[in-house]
Structures are given as C-alpha cells and as structure tokens.
Amino acid sequence: MPAVDPAQLQKAFGSLESDALSECQSMCQAFGLGADELFIRWQTYVINRHGGDAGIRPTRERLLDVRVTLQQESDRRASQRQPQAVPTVKLSRNRERTHYDKKSVEGLLQNMVSSSQEPLRTPQSTKRVGLLKGSASAVRSRSMASPMSPSVFAEPSPSAIRYSKRTNPGRTEDTLHSELPPFCLPEPRAALTVHNLAAKLADDYALSDDEDDESSSAEDADTAAQMPARRMRYMFEKLGTRTETINRRIERMALDVKAEYAITALANPTYPHQDAVTAVGRILNINLDDPAAPISNDTLFLETSRRLGNGRRILLDVQASPSFSLFPGQVVAVEGKNIKGSEFAASQFRPLPRLPHSSIGDRPDAIQPFDGIIACGPYTLSDNLEYEPLRDLIDQTLTTQPSLVLLLGPFVSEAHPMLREGQTDLMPEDVFSTKVSPHLARLREGLPISSSIYLVPSADDLCSPYVSFPQPPFSRELLARAGVPDGIESLSNPAQIAVNGVNIAISNIDALFHLVKEEVSRLPALSDRLPRLAWHLVEQRHFYPLATPPPDCAGILASQDARLRMLVAPDIMVTPSQLRQFARMHENAVLLNPGHLSKGLSGGTFVKLAVRAPSSMEASGPMLGDSTKLFPAECTSVEIVRI
Asked: Whole-prediction pTM value?
C-alpha cells in the first residue's frame, strides 16, 4: 500500500510529533490502514487503556502499544486463513519387524512431541479453586516445573522485552503537597501502631430510640457484633433484607440532617407543599420509555423511607437548582416545593453532615510520622505470568524502606488472558505460591521488623474464595498454604484502619468507574470530576453507595451493609480505579487513586506517601502557627510514580 499523506494523519490526529508521525506512517503501510482507520484504532486504545481521557496524546511509545495490538490481530487472522497441518507419524509396514530398538523409539517420541501444535488447555471457565481445600497441586513440590509453566519459556514475551526497555520508569505522574518539608523518620524507628476500626461496628450500628424500638436496635447491634463470624452467603439474600438496608440508610442520614440544620420535622416530599420544605430521600433513575437509558435531569426520582414517606417515589425536578451532583442510590437532603402533588421541585441540595472529624490537637491519640507504599494489582503483564512489575515494585520498596506497605489485589486476576483462555496448566494457587509469594518473602526479609505489610483481597482475585463485596481478609491458613511468610497480614475489603493516629479507608472495588457512567451534575462544588466521585463515598459514608452495580461487577451483599459503612471520617481515602490516577485534598481528606501497577502490556503506577509529625510543620512556610489546628491530610504528601 502506498504511503499515507502526512497531512491526512495530521488532520486526523490533530497534531503529531515527528517521531509519532513516522510511526503512524509505518503502521499504515504495514497493516494497510488509512489515516481515519488508524485514528479509530487510536481512540479504541485510549478508551481501553486510559478510560477515554481526552488529554492523552499520541506519543511514539503509546503508538507502539497500538502496533502490538495490530500485529496480534494480523497474526491471528493469518493463522485462521492458513491452518497448520499436523504432521502424521508414519509407522513402518515391515511385517517382519517385531521389535523396536532405542533409536527407533526415540525417533517416534520426537515426532509425536513435535506434532503437538496446540498446547493442552484447561476448560474455558476460570473456576475458583480455594486454597483452603488443600489441593494436590498446592502441596506438590515447588521445584517441579510444568512443561507449560511460564518459568520454562525459552524467551521472554515481546511485552516483557518492551517493559524492560521502557523509558519512563520512576516518572512522577501526580503529586500532592510537594511543597512540604523533606520527610525523615527518627532513629531508631518505632513500630507502627495499627488499629482495625471494625471493632467499633456494633456500637455504631444501632439506630436511636426515636426511630425504631429498643428491641429492634438491640437485635441489629447483636447482629453486627456477630458479623465477623458469619459466612458471606452470596445469592442467599431476601428481598426484604435489601429494602430494610435501604430504609435504614435513609433514616440514619435523616437523623443527622435534622440535628445538623436544627429541623423540627422533615417533610414528606410526596405530599403537596406550597412553602419550601426539606426532605431526605434516595436518588433513583427511572425511565419508563427506556429502562436502560442513561441518567439525565428528566429521569430523576426521589425515594423516601417508610417512616418519612411510606417508601413512595416522586419525580424530582432539578431545573431551579443552581448546583448539584447526583447518581442513583445517593441519599440527599433537598429543599423545595411540591405545588401540584406530582413532582418535587428542588431549589437547592443541602450539604450532608459529615462524620466527626477532629484536628490533630483534639484527638486522643498523638499523630506519629510514617511513610508508606500503596499499590494495586494486577501485578503482571497481560501476556505472561512472570510478575515483572511486582518484582520492580519490591526492589523500589526495599530501597526506600517504608514503614507501611499496602498491597491491594488482584494478585491472580481472573481477567488475565492466559488464565481465562487456558494457556497455562498452572492453577491459581500455584501461580500465587510460585510467582507472588517469593517476592513477598523477599519483601518481608528486606524490611525492618518495625515495618508493617498488609494484603487486601479483591473480588477479581482467583485465590479468594469470596466473590462478593465486602470480603473478609485472607485467612492465615490460606496465606500459609500459599507460602506467604509470617509477618505479612491481611485486611478486609473494604478496610478502615488507624495508622499512628491517621484514619485510612481502603475500598478495593472500582466504584469510581461505575459512578462515572451514572452521575449527572451541574456546577458542582468540587469541579474536578474524578476526585468528586471519590468524595461521594466519603459524603455518603458508604464504600459502595451506587443503587445497582453493573452486571459484570461483584455482587454487593445487603446483609453485610454494616461492613460497607464508614465508621469514622477518613484522613486518607484509597479507591483504586482504572480511571486516571489522582491525589487531591478536599475538606481535610486526601482522595487517592493509585492506579494499577500493570495496565495490559505496559507498566502502571503506585503511590508513595509520607505523613509528617505536626511539630515539623510549625516552621514550614504556609503552615506557620499552631500545629494542633492542622489536620493529618495537611501533613501528608503524596507522589504517584510510574513503575
């Protein structure tokens, strides 16, 4: 095919550097594409790898990823057009030959091995095999390599070669509070003080007596106290459990709204009101003409609780509201009128009251400095199981010697092509024990005993027997079978912990990606959209406030809703997502998306954070004054780094 005119490429892509333009011309000529066709492939790449971020520019490095995809498609089409003939083994027809010598048997075996063009495949369904069952493959000798094991591949994959030659390792993608003074820990290092805030669940769960009777509240508190011992029974929930959970969420927020704004009684928005009233309810997206239509200003409904409005729903008119940011499942406090009795016209949405969030001087426990590394899986490239990004992360962690390491799953992702398509005979527990555990052992041995290492499961992890959200932590027995050394603990998903007096909330489910497609807004208070999505979780006091998760998402257990509630206002909110990574501070809380350590065929990002001692902030530029008035988020610096 003749070379494509550079002007056509510049017109399609907008603007291209000289090296990127040369790469585009090369791809067009190699794969027979026009300028518009190549641009469509580029848009597909941006959507799949970068969540459709319009700010991603076509650099030569990114265009090389597009070339890899085009080459794979070309090879696949070529193999389908020309199926390779399987050589047959011809046996001798000499009837007088009654025995085989050593040479003839070796030759026969060699022909049979060379004739196997297709590797053995496991079934298409990636069945979850838990480590708790102690399968034979999990306890067999680690030294026995399988013929199809990635560890015996003759050469590394093309993406592994490109990954090793990448030009952007260590590049800073985003920062927060980089102007703070340099971080340093006093020697000798003191061990971290880590408290799991889930112990406060029972005390925080019951409703007040003016909302429900004492017997109901006592029963709920007792149920919450027994939750750690209860089984996560997925698909065993009753419809009444879900409706009761929704009702309680609305009622809890209604009590706080009444106290925050000194309202005597909240109104029923389904009744006609000529004067402005305040109501509390849940946002829904209802389109009778097209139930699958996306949310819009014309499809908003307000659902009440049973006590405040008999659970009825009414059309919500937001045309007169100057500012809002809404999504299905969101509990809101709205002020407006119901003139006709058929719709509630909102004049404004009141800010929801926050959970108690005190400054450093008002906290019972003193804030002590610490630094940490936060990373989220997948930890290997999509065309091999060699875990090169995890290896490099451990190397950098051992160099910086942080006090805290948080590793979020998936560690063995069910979405990995080699596992989904059966291109390896390794079971998920074998992959974890032979590929992940050695790196974890090296990490534990290389860090001082005062450092803490925590693993957080994921619903996409094949090594976790729980496929729903929330998830309990990895059991000690499971970690022992996987070869994880002592000194590495596991947290639940989601998790709420206090580290040296700093409250950290972790939600290892891509709630941001689910929210981004369901939100409708107008001049919101937080204009930056991605941090605003993370702030929704803090404002709603819930790790998954969306009404209905997408079909491909893990099931949300309504019976375990108490585990999804935030117990205290977080100082640091960690929400990994495939959307663009970010680090922002809003209302004295750090909102953090560390990204994924591996993105397809290329490396991703991880986070370095440091929380400074309040005393070190008194003489640092804009922080002059009394350090006890500061919040931990103001003493925290974040750096998002390319692996």
From this structure: 0.74
